[in-house]
Amino acid sequence: MSEQHQPIEGGTAERKLGGIGSRILFEDAKVRIWELALAPGERSDVHRHDLDYYLVQIGGDRIAVEPEPDSAGEYRDYFAADVVPGVVVPMKRGGVETAVNVGEQPYYEIIVELKDA
Description:
The protein is built from no helices and 11 strands. It has strands at residues 4-7, 14-17, 23-27, 31-38, 47-48, 53-59, 62-67, 79-82, 88-91, 96-100, 107-114. The strands form 3 sheets. It has a 5-stranded antiparallel beta sheet with strand order 3-4-11-6-9, with no helix packed on it. Strands 5-10-7-8 form a 4-stranded antiparallel beta sheet, with no helix packed on it. A two-stranded antiparallel ribbon has the order 1-2.
């Protein structure tokens, strides 16, 4: 996962930001496609969504999002939900968060970032 350093809002400390997924599957001038795979109890890197994107849930039973205090995304509070394989969720850029597999099954999703033209 790629790593960035970003000042934490309201302070001088820096946090490390990782990639939004486990690995990039495909990238061209229009999209970047990631996979995210998390074992039960596993957490993603803290990451920032700089582009609008779609989530495609593939497998798992329960997933949570832990937003950072300076998140400007759609979820600004802790959010957990059941996984619905095949569901596609459009999301807006701006979120700074960690995904957490709070279920008992491995979690798997595809993330399709839409690059700005």
